[in-house]
């Protein structure tokens, strides 16, 4: 089953965040993930959620995403990301 990962990020240091982006894009692709949306225009229709920058990924499965997220490559990139931004991250299983 595919997994969809929703990432809501607020960037505090765009220069440093670019360093993260330069490394994470190829790492996501190497793990079988792909970008579906990245920082485009957004609009809240209901509720009190105030997203900052939304990134949407698709991975082959939740297990594939978790292996990427917990793996050594992303751990190093996450340290960079954490130093220059704050985020919310969720995954949801898709339909077969």
Structural class: alpha+beta
> Unreliable runs, pLDDT <50, ≥5 residues?
none
Binned strand content: 25-35%
Kindly report the spatial arrangement of strands forming the biggest sheet: 2-3-1-4
The arrangement of helices and strands along the chain is EHEEHHE
How would you portray this structure in words?
The chain is α+β, with helices and mostly antiparallel strands. It has a domain at 1-36. Helices cover 41% and strands 31% of the residues. The protein has helices at 14-30, 62-70, 72-84; strands at residues 3-11, 34-38, 53-59, 85-93. A 4-stranded antiparallel sheet has the order 2-3-1-4. α1 packs antiparallel against α3. The longest helix is centred in the first third of the chain and has 17 residues, at 14-30. The radius of gyration is 13 Å and the shape is globular. It starts with a strand and ends with a strand.
What can be said about this structure in brief?
It is built from three helices and four strands. It is an alpha+beta fold.
Write the layout of secondary structure elements.
Blueprint: E1 3-11, H1 14-30, E2 34-38, E3 53-59, H2 62-70, H3 72-84, E4 85-93
Antiparallel strand pairs: 1-3, 1-4, 2-3
Structural features:
96 residues, alpha+beta, 3 helices, 41% helix, globular
């Amino acid at each position: 089953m595919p997994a969809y990962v929703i990432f809501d990020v607020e960037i505090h240091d765009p220069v440093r965040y670019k360093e993260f982006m330069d490394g994470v894009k190829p790492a996501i692709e190497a793990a079988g993930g792909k970008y579906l949306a990245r920082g485009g225009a957004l609009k809240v229709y209901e509720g009190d959620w105030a997203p900052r920058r939304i990134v949407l990924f698709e991975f082959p499965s939740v297990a594939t995403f978790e292996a990427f997220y917990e793996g050594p490559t992303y751990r190093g990139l996450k340290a960079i990301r954490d130093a220059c931004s704050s985020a919310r991250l969720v995954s949801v299983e898709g339909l077969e």
